[in-house]
Write a structure and sequence with these properties.
By secondary structure, this protein is an alpha/beta fold. The chain has three domains: 177 residues, Jelly Rolls (Sandwich), CATH 2.60.120.260; 83 residues, Sandwich (Immunoglobulin-like), CATH 2.60.40; 310 residues, Glycosidases (TIM Barrel, Alpha-Beta Barrel). It is built from seven helices and 34 strands. The longest helix is centred in the C-terminal third of the chain and has 22 residues. The protein is globular.
């Protein structure tokens, strides 16, 4: 199947095993699980029409396998939605539990960028923002037997005020194929009238308790909570839900990267039944005997050795082919000795974070960037060798002249904090990267701190540091890295480095070869990788470097600087050498204690 993006089709080992009737059948929200639900992934009809959304097309263009975007190989479509066009979806379904429970919610994990949802010809609701889930109460629109769901989707990519991340209508280099429409699970959920709308789990490590805050759709008299460890109830009780509910956990088992222990949580209120999980941990900073500030996990210094993770797949683009593929990749990263991933300018389905929680992989979460096309001087030239630019006055030079775009960023920031607030492994927020749409970063960091004081903040990853947040964050690719202490007393991190490229014939989607340093063989790449860590990163850890993020997990389109090929078929450097490098970094931190 040819594609509009000019790339070569490149399946993964999982492509042929993807279900053609219901891909991604797993319950999509691990920390707020219910029994009565229905997966609506599978074959939908689609049509692409010129102009803004009008009436539904009289005829559709064909079928699309949801939740894969039409630009992806796995969708079966291979067409690019352009600005000024409308992508239509349609599917007829029978809902399974509407008679037993009065409330039916129609959930969408993510639809890029803006959409209107119709049920049986009536508008059920609208949503803006291509990375965030939304749910619509469609109880009043249901009818007996078959129901018709339809969506009208528009996507301006980087031509409007919405977040778009690394998507570009003119892909190439570090910018990737723009995609659109449904790219996470569609599902229905059947609920009692009084049900949990939001559930916040706050592990109070120093107080040895879990704080639970639940918001309900209607008043409930009392809430019963149970905490279980390996299937055995260890704590719980009956609580008044109008205030935060605290469950004492004396002698709890901490969560960390070497022992990622998770507790189960059960909530009951009237007819409502919810299952969840959590881990007990705390993130902090502390100065060692050498006076150098470092990150701490559960009060102990931790060195974070991580990978930049773009979250693109050669067959599904934003959408991994299946959960098995996600688990395989995370397990590979862990087995290579990494203990952290920086999720770069993308938000994953919630099951991805669940597997990080259970495997013990810390997560640094970037917020999704937006704004007008960026100035090369601001994002490249001045970043490497120019002056530090203030970001709180001349918004246009950072691509943020549009007030609506700035407002949308803050809206989406709070959406992200709420969506991922319960993720045990999520350790650090990154609001801005390399000046892409950066603005008011000191104020933004303060707003994140007020909403979530439990995690670290890298307020301006790369350059144009405004002296805020918990760390000084540097990206170093073309010159040797030399560790320097931050004069403002923050933790020093190397939030991007490496990016060594090596071609793998037969496993590349593009004929172009983008990377920061180029090698032609596995032996040469492995030798250079080990030399980089031994000569630059290891000495810096001894001097106080607290984290290092190598670029990157896998190749992506033109970029061939991943440890894995884009199709995840080949690990390009030697596995033993990667493990040895990571082990030496962790040992170096131990030697400084």
């Amino acid at each position: 199947m040819a594609s509009d993006n000019g790339l070569l089709p490149l399946p993964t080992r999982w492509s042929e095993t993807v279900s053609k009737t219901c891909p991604w059948p797993e319950y999509p929200r691990p920390q707020l699980r219910r029994e009565h639900w229905q997966c609506l992934n599978g074959v939908w009809e689609y049509a692409i029409r010129e102009g803004a959304p009008g009436g539904m097309p009289a005829a559709f263009d064909g079928n699309i396998l949801t939740p894969f975007s039409p630009e992806s190989l796995l969708s079966g479509v291979g067409r690019q939605l352009l600005p000024g066009q409308t992508l239509w979806y349609r599917r007829r379904v029978r809902f399974e539990n509407t008679a037993a429970l009065p409330v039916t919610l129609l959930h969408f994990g993510a639809v890029d960028q803006c959409c209107a949802v119709y049920l049986n010809g009536q508008c059920a609701g609208r949503h803006e923002g291509g990375y965030w889930p939304f749910a619509l109460d469609v109880s009043h629109l249901l009818r007996e037997g078959e129901n018709e769901i339809a969506l009208a989707v528009t996507d301006d990519t980087n031509q409007g005020s919405q977040a778009y991340g690394k998507q570009s209508p003119r892909r190439g280099g570090i910018w990737y194929t723009a995609q659109s429409g449904i790219w996470q699970t569609v599902w229905a959920e059947f609920l009692p009238q009084a049900h949990v709308e939001t559930l916040r789990l706050n592990p109070l490590y120093d107080e040895s308790c879990l704080e639970v805050t639940a918001a309900f759709s209607a008043p409930v008299g009392e809430v019963q909570l149970r905490v279980l460890a390996e299937g055995k109830e260890i704590a719980g009780g009956t609580f008044d839900p109008t205030a935060p509910m605290r469950i004492p956990l004396p002698g709890f088992r901490p969560w960390d990267t070497e022992d990622p222990f998770l507790y189960d949580l059960e909530l009951r209120a009237g007819e409502e039944r919810v299952q969840s999980y959590f881990g007990m941990r705390k993130f902090g900073t502390n100065k060692g005997s050498d006076g150098v500030p470092r990150f701490t996990l559960n009060g102990r210094p931790i060195f974070q050795t991580g990978l930049l993770d773009q979250g693109y797949w050669s067959d599904g683009l934003y959408t991994p082919p299946c959960e098995e593929a996600v688990v395989w990749e995370l397990e590979q990263c862990k087995a290579l000795g990494f203990n952290m991933l920086r999720k770069h300018i993308k938000i994953e389905p919630l099951r991805w974070y669940y597997h990080c929680d259970r495997l013990g992989l810390l997560v640094w979460q970037d917020l999704v960037s937006g704004g007008a096309p960026y100035s090369p001087f601001v994002t490249q030239v001045s970043g490497f060798c120019g002056p530090r630019l203030a970001d709180d006055r001349r918004y246009a030079r950072f691509g943020r002249a549009d007030a609506a775009g700035r407002a949308n960023f803050e809206r989406d920031m709070h959406r992200t904090l709420a969506l991922l607030g319960n993720v045990t492994s999520l350790a650090l927020w990154v609001p801005f990267n390399e000046a892409w749409g950066q603005f008011d970063s000191v104020r933004i960091a303060e707003a994140i701190r007020a909403a979530d004081p439990s995690r670290w903040i890298d307020h301006a990853s790369g350059w144009h540091d405004q002296h805020a947040g918990d760390c000084r964050s540097r990206h170093v690719y073309f010159i040797p890295y030399r560790h320097k202490r931050d004069r403002f007393g923050r933790v020093e991190i190397l939030s991007e480095f490496g990016g060594y490229s090596c071609p793998a014939p037969g496993h590349m989607a593009s004929r172009k070869r983008f990377g920061y340093k180029k090698y032609d063989s596995k032996a040469a790449l492995t030798q250079a990788y080990a030399r980089l860590f031994q000569r630059e990163i290891l000495p810096a850890v001894r001097r106080g470097l607290s984290a290092a993020v190598y670029t990157q997990v896998s190749d992506v389109e033109d970029e061939i600087n991943g440890l894995f090929t884009y199709d995840r078929a080949i690990l390009k450097p030697g596995a033993d050498e990667i493990r040895a490098c990571n082990k030496s970094l962790l040992q170096a931190l131990c030697d400084t204690k």
